[in-house]
Write a structure and sequence with these properties.
Alpha-D-Glucose-1,6-Bisphosphate, Chain A, domain 3, 4 domains, six-stranded mixed beta sheet, 21 strands
């Protein structure tokens, strides 16, 4: 029989240090249950420590080192403070934002007290606000770093802790490792000096951001019936004010999702990409015969778009919205680097080349896209868009939403819609159709095993197309740092990238096919592309996952 003494001692020591009465009581109840033989939950809480990485921290709320709680956050704040002092920022300012999730305000206050206790200045955002507003504030206020307490579009039981440095970009290696080392070196919480709760930033920072975003819109048509949902998140007031300032009529807002609610009661998963999340918005759009549906995720750093077509309403893929925004900015004369992540469509590179602008690919995540020198526009297929890198070097669902509305209004004035513009882009550059195949694993050991099997025996064909080139992205290159992934270049412009998810127990495959269109019917090209994607997906499922799934 396993000796539970070390686990129980560890749990009791953690509870004694926990300043939160709720998680302390939760842990004490788990200790009692473990003494009665119900050990699984307690053991999981202490199976490891919530890992600090380039996404900061993110995980389920609860007691213990393997959950998001005040002890874990306090240690993370102390590690960040030590890192800032060690890298020449003693006495500098850290701006702290928070969304409306459970405990976000509490974690923000703990962070502020640790920063002031360490001799740094803590500037706390005045209320629950979007993540891009925090990224804006870092540069606007001249801060050494920024912290945003958010779990973005994760389930309601989660929260997270996102760290930015003074350039307004999310942390990348080696900063993440160096901060993690200092977190690990933090001693007992009782030894950490705590100061006051910092200074609350004035509402003028919000007003400046709103004016900056609204100023992105140029003079032009504003006749557009818009349906909007913030998905129970913090984007609602911000978006309404930006649209009003830019001259649009107030959108029809999904009433059931209008106000921040950390329980996200109308959606099973508060991500606009998830099936069902946009149903209420599309029903409202049909009721009002709207021209456009737009949505943010709960912290408003992503933007989703739906458009009417012959069959009702359809969601645009992230790559489609990225192409529309790039088209719009190029038409407006934007100059500089157009960038996207490697798992996003190759279309952006062709559009940039045709406009005489440079293009770069980055690793997945805005921590990389936001750091591209001379960036004019950047996006990733997961609904993230950076349209104003001078002010926000991160994805910003508010500015992207405004520019989509501006483009849709201009198209409407010409008797057209966003799908018509996408068709124009396809005629010029070919139809670029994308899809995903994601496989969830119960046994985490199967994920590296799957990647190693594909490295050892790469497929020679996928979906009837020859695999012309295989790149092991873990080896890195002159253009990209190493990352765990494989890229297959197929005949006729098709492409597949396979990589483990950074946040879930999944392996994700990103598929793209390119069908020449010319003056032909774009719908016919779309049907052809769907067939090719299905064939590639079927082969991938067998080649990559068959040994695991029994296929």
């Amino acid at each position: 029989m396993t000796d539970l003494t070390p686990l129980l001692e560890q749990a009791r020591a953690w509870a004694a240090e926990d300043p939160d009465e709720h998680t302390r009581a939760e842990l004490e109840a788990l200790v009692d249950a473990a003494e009665r033989g119900e050990v699984t939950d307690l053991a999981d809480r202490f199976a490891g420590t919530l890992e600090f990485g380039t996404a900061g921290l993110r995980g389920a709320l609860g007691a213990g080192p393997n959950r998001m709680n005040r002890v874990v956050v306090t240690r993370a704040a102390a590690g960040l403070a030590a890192y800032l002092k060690d890298t020449g920022h003693a006495g500098g300012s850290v701006v702290i934002g928070f969304d409306a999730r459970h405990n976000s305000d509490v974690f923000a206050r703990d962070t502020a007290e640790i920063m002031t206790g360490a001799g740094l200045k803590a500037l706390v955002m005045p209320r629950t606000l979007p993540t891009p507003l925090l990224a804006y504030a870092i540069r606007e206020l001249g801060c050494a770093a920024g912290v945003m307490v958010t779990a973005s579009h994760n389930p309601p039981q989660d929260n997270g802790y996102k760290v930015y440095l003074g350039d307004g970009s999310q942390i990348v290696p080696p900063a993440d490792v160096e901060i993690a080392e200092r977190i690990a070196a933090v001693g007992p919480l009782t030894d950490l000096p705590r100061g006051d709760a910092g200074r609350v930033v004035g509402e003028d920072i919000v007003d400046n951001y709103l004016d900056t975003v609204a100023g992105l819109a140029q003079d032009g048509p504003r006749d557009l019936s818009i349906v909007y949902t913030p998905l129970h998140g913090v984007g609602g007031t911000t978006v309404a004010q930006v649209l009003e300032t830019a001259g649009f009529d107030a959108p029809h807002v999904v009433e059931q999702q209008e106000h921040p609610d950390p329980d996200f009661p109308t959606v099973s998963f508060p991500n606009p990409e998830e099936p069902g999340a946009m149903d209420l918005a599309m029903a409202l759009a049909a009721e009002h015969r709207a021209d456009l549906v737009v949505a943010n995720d709960p912290d408003a750093d992503r933007c989703a778009v739906a458009v009417p077509d012959a069959h009702g309403w359809r969601m645009l893929r992230g790559d489609e919205v990225g192409a529309l925004l790039a088209h719009h900015l190029i038409d407006r004369g934007a100059t500089g680097v157009f960038a996207n992540s490697i798992v996003s469509s190759s279309l952006l590179g062709k559009m940039a080349a045709a406009a005489g602008q440079p293009h770069e690919e980055t690793l997945t995540g805005f921590k990389w896209i936001g750091r591209v020198e001379g960036l004019a526009f950047g996006y990733e297929e997961a609904l993230g868009y950076c349209c104003d890198p001078e002010h926000v070097r991160d994805k910003d669902g508010v500015s992207a939403l405004l520019l989509v509305c501006e483009l849709a209004a201009a198209a409407k004035a010409d008797g057209r819609g966003l799908p018509d513009i996408l068709d124009d882009i396809s005629r010029e550059h070919g139809l670029h159709a994308t899809d995903q195949l994601s496989v969830r694993f119960e046994d985490l050991a199967d994920i590296p095993a799957t990647m190693e099997r594909l490295r050892a025996t790469p497929p020679s064909t996928l979906g009837g197309l020859a695999v012309e080139r295989v790149e092991d992205l873990s080896e890195g290159s002159d253009l990209l740092p190493p990352t765990d992934g494989l890229r297959y270049t197929l005949a006729e412009g098709a492409r597949v990238i396979v990589r483990p998810s950074g946040t879930e127990p999944k392996v994700k495959c990103y598929l793209e096919v390119v069908i020449p269109v010319g003056d032909e019917d774009v719908d016919a090209a779309r049907i052809s592309a769907a067939g090719r994607l299905d064939a590639i997906k079927a082969d991938l499922r067998g080649v990559a996952f068959g040994p695991v799934l029994g296929g």
